[in-house]
Structure formats: structure tokens, C-alpha cells
Design a protein that fits this description.
By secondary structure, this protein is of the alpha/beta class. The chain has a single domain (about 10-445), classed as Alpha-Beta Barrel (TIM Barrel). The protein has 14 helices and 13 strands. The longest helix has 24 residues, at about 230-255. The structure holds beta-D-glucopyranose (BGC) (2 copies).
Length: about 450
């Protein structure tokens, strides 16, 4: 059986973070409010009322964090750019001080020998755009493309590859359908125009980036979907869920058409959001790489209550993370094999842009995280041996950080952060990852 050390020569080792989860400094240097600044102030929205106002204070401590990355031996670092630092109201004049932060960050990464891989949107929409409907408003897609051009004009000389969006599935469903993430809207299926407008924004931004000779990726949260039983009802529910979670976000980009959403009761034009020509705008620019964020598979049963066309059920008899997510490393291999089967030559090279788990703070050494990473990297190596083209792996996350609705409770970091003192302490998984990177690299150095 191939294992993680059999990953190919040139395989990129990385770690990932996102702006609102680590930066803090929400009122500094002209940054405007994002939907998350507003959402966290809503009573009960985030566990224990935590906010990202300070987070890991990375805005000021980035040199220390880059020193950790360098010590780890990372090839690449995935971070996100906060749109409200660049355009405080989401449109119009550029805030020079905001752009200058990312300029410094990129230079410091390059100086440390680490390739910057920025994501343009990781859920922190300028609140001023949300006040006009946010991603439910088609205009936001055009504003996004403008913002992409602005940032690329400044950083594109040093940053060759860009991720447009992070997980439009999670942002649509948690942020607009269920109201458990910012902007906190609970529209159920009528949230889906927000998915289309994000994809349209991706396509428009991809054209803007390609015009500048840059490479474009999209990071999707993908999950292998398995029916809870052999019954026809469970199979139908699983198919409907797969269309919603996975295919809605990959078919238009890779194939130029939306999957059939009729089992969900969603009209073909997604409640009038899809205009003629839109799927071409999403598909035609092409994708230079697909970012896959994998955490766990999803088991689906036929609905027990008539509210939704499916029920999500637990996967018993496997370990679960501190977050309660099932640990199924082979799900990653199956997911990748399924992508290759479904999309064939339309599938671009893959990069794992997130994978990791939260572990209880008191677990020392953090063996569950090491086990999780090791098993998922072995599954990844098996997928590669079976012919899937995977170029790199960015673990989530470098640091413990603001875990959205869970506040600071779920700790995903290779590095422990004491949020009272901002002290960073590398965990056992950090040492493990560093050693893996070193040994893998030495294998090909001979
Ligand atoms: C899912 C994960 C997903 C997460 C988004 C969870 O419920 O199990 O796969 O990444 O939500 O934060
Ligand atoms: C998101 C991250 C998040 C992680 C763990 C992904 O859904 O992109 O921002 O912290 O999963 O929930």
C-alpha cells in the first residue's frame, strides 16, 4: 500500500488560515466592517459571545507566524485577503493601508521561501454590500471581480496562483440558508441565488485574473455522500444531497451546467437568478486547479420530517473529532476517485486546500490530530497512486483560531494559541508535520 512518503516529488506542503479567523485588528488602518463583525454582535450567534476582534492578532504578529511556517519547512501558505480592508464599503476607492498589509505579508513570505496562496473571499463580505443584499444581489459578483483586479494589480507580480472563493457551499448554507454563520440569514432553499452569484463572481474574477496571466483555483468543501441503507428512498435522498453539497459547486465550473435540483424543489433557473449566458461566464474562463477542502463524509437518509428532502445522520463506529465530526480517512480517497470518474478530462489538477481536525485543548501530546493527519495523507497517497493528480496539501490550520459559530472552542492548530497572552506553542502535531516534510523532501534530494 502506498503511503504518505510515496507522494510525488515536488508535492507542495502547506498550511491554511483565513483573515477573520486570525487577523484581529478589525478597526485598524481603515478596515470597514464585514458581515462577521455585525453577526458576532448578535446575542447568541457565537458560542460564549466570542468575536474575531482580536483573534490571533496576526495583523501585528505575522512576522512571528511566518517564522513558525519557515521552521515547519512549508512550501506554501494559504491565507485570505479581507475585502473590507481593501475596499471598506465593498466598492469604490482602495484603502491603501489595507492593501499595504498584504503587500508586507507577501514580501515576508517570499523572503522566508514560502509561496503565498491567497484566497480572495473567505466569508468576510463588506457589510455595506450586505446592506444591499450581499450575495443575494447579482451586483456583488461584479463588485467581487473589480476587487479581484485591484488586488491582483498590486500583488500579481509576486503571487502566481489565486483562489477566488472559499467553500461557497458552506457560506451559502450556513450564512444564508440556516443563519448560523454571518450574515445570519435563514432563507432555506431560497438562499441558493447566493450560491449562483458567488459562482458568477468566481467566473468574472477568474477572467480578470487570467487577463493578468495569473492562475485560478476555487476551493470547495466536498464530501463523499453515502446513503444510510440500501433502500431506494435513502439512495434518492443521498443523490439530492450530493447535488446540493457537491455538484452545485463543481458542475457549473467544470462542465458549464447546473445539476438537476428538482428533487430539492429548486427551479432550473434557481429562482430567477441564473440569466442566459451565466453558466458560460462561470465555465469559460476555466480552472487551473481545484481546491478540495475535506473533513468528513456525509451519510444521508430519506427525510423523517417533511421539511427537508433528506436527513443527515451520524456515521457510527468510527472515531469522532472534538467537533463531533466522524473521522473517515478513506473518504478522502473515495472523494478524489469519484471526482476523477465524474469529471474525467474536465478535472484540473487538485490541491487539498484544507484538511485537519479540532482536538480538545487538554489533549497532550495531541495524538488524535497526528493520527488524523497521518491517515488522511496515507489515503491521499493512495488516491495519487490510483491516478488522481494532486499537487499539494494545506492543512487546516497553522494556528488555533476563531472557529466561526464555535468561537475559540474548536482548536484546529498545529500551534496552540493562548488567547489571553497570544503566546504560540507548537504542538506535537507541529513537530510531526515538520518531520514528515523533511523526510519526504530528503527522499527526492538524493
Ligand atoms: C461538516 C464539515 C464542514 C463544516 C463546515 C460540518 O458540519 O461536517 O464537513 O466542513 O460543517 O464548517
Ligand atoms: C472553513 C474554515 C473552518 C474549517 C473548520 C472550513 O469549512 O473553510 O474556515 O475553520 O472548515 O470548520
Amino acid at each position: 500500500m502506498p503511503d504518505r512518503l510515496d507522494l510525488p516529488a515536488g508535492f507542495r506542503w502547506g498550511a491554511a488560515t483565513a483573515a477573520y479567523q486570525i487577523e484581529g485588528a478589525v478597526d485598524e488602518d481603515g478596515r470597514g466592517p464585514s458581515v462577521w463583525d455585525v453577526f458576532v454582535a448578535r446575542p447568541g450567534a457565537v458560542r460564549d459571545g466570542h468575536t474575531g476582534a482580536v483573534a490571533c492578532d496576526h495583523y501585528h504578529r505575522y512576522p512571528e507566524d511566518i517564522a513558525l511556517m519557515k521552521d515547519l519547512g512549508l512550501d506554501g501558505y494559504r491565507f485570505s485577503i479581507a475585502w473590507p480592508r481593501i475596499q471598506p464599503t465593498g466598492a469604490g476607492p482602495v484603502n491603501a493601508a489595507g492593501l499595504a498589509f498584504y503587500d508586507r505579508l507577501v514580501d515576508a513570505l517570499l523572503e522566508a521561501g514560502i509561496e503565498p496562496l491567497p484566497t480572495l473571499f473567505h466569508w468576510d463580505l463588506p457589510q455595506a454590500l450586505e446592506d444591499h443584499g450581499g450575495w443575494l444581489n447579482r451586483d456583488t459578483a461584479y463588485r467581487f471581480a473589480e476587487y479581484a483586479g485591484t488586488v491582483a494589480d498590486r500583488l500579481g507580480d509576486r503571487v502566481p496562483a489565486w483562489i477566488t472563493l472559499n467553500e461557497p457551499f458552506v457560506h451559502t448554507v450556513f450564512g444564508y440558508a440556516m443563519g448560523i454563520h454571518g450574515p445570519g440569514r435563514a432563507l432555506m432553499f431560497e438562499a441558493l441565488p447566493a450560491a449562483h452569484h458567488q459562482l458568477l463572481g468566481h467566473g468574472l474574477a477568474a477572467s480578470v485574473l487570467h487577463e493578468r496571466g495569473l492562475k485560478v483555483m476555487l476551493s470547495n468543501n466536498l464530501t463523499p455522500v453515502e446513503p444510510a441503507s440500501g433502500s431506494a428512498e435513502d439512495a434518492a435522498a443521498a443523490q439530492a444531497y450530493d447535488a446540493l453539497h457537491n455538484r452545485l459547486f463543481t458542475d457549473p465550473v467544470l462542465l458549464g451546467r447546473y445539476p438537476d435540483l428538482s428533487a430539492l424543489g429548486v427551479p432550473d433557473d434557481i429562482y430567477g437568478a441564473v440569466h442566459p449566458g451565466d453558466t458560460d461566464l462561470i465555465h469559460t474562463p476555466g480552472l487551473d486547479g481545484l481546491g478540495v477542502n475535506y473533513y468528513n463524509p456525509t451519510r444521508v437518509a430519506a427525510p423523517t420530517d417533511p421539511g427537508l428532502p433528506f436527513d443527515l445522520v451520524d456515521i457510527p463506529d468510527v472515531p469522532h473529532t472534538a467537533f463531533g465530526w466522524p473521522v473517515v480517512p478513506d473518504g478522502l480517497r473515495r472523494l478524489l476517485a469519484h471526482l476523477r470518474e465524474s469529471y474525467g478530462t474536465a478535472l484540473p489538477p487538485i490541491t487539498i486546500t484544507e484538511n485537519g481536525c479540532s482536538v480538545e485543548e487538554s489533549t497532550d501530546p495531541d495524538q488524535p490530530r497526528i493520527d488524523y493527519l497521518a491517515a488522511h495523507l496515507d489515503a491521499l497517497a493512495q488516491a495519487v497512486a490510483e491516478g488522481v493528480d494532486v499537487r499539494g496539501y494545506y492543512t487546516w490550520s497553522l494556528l488555533d483560531n476563531f472557529e466561526w459559530a464555535e468561537g475559540y472552542h474548536q482548536r484546529f492548530g498545529l500551534v496552540h494559541v493562548d488567547f489571553a497572552t497570544q503566546r504560540r506553542t507548537p504542538r506535537a502535531s507541529y513537530a510531526w508535520y515538520r518531520q514528515l516534510i523533511r523526510v519526504h523532501r530528503e527522499r527526492f534530494a538524493k
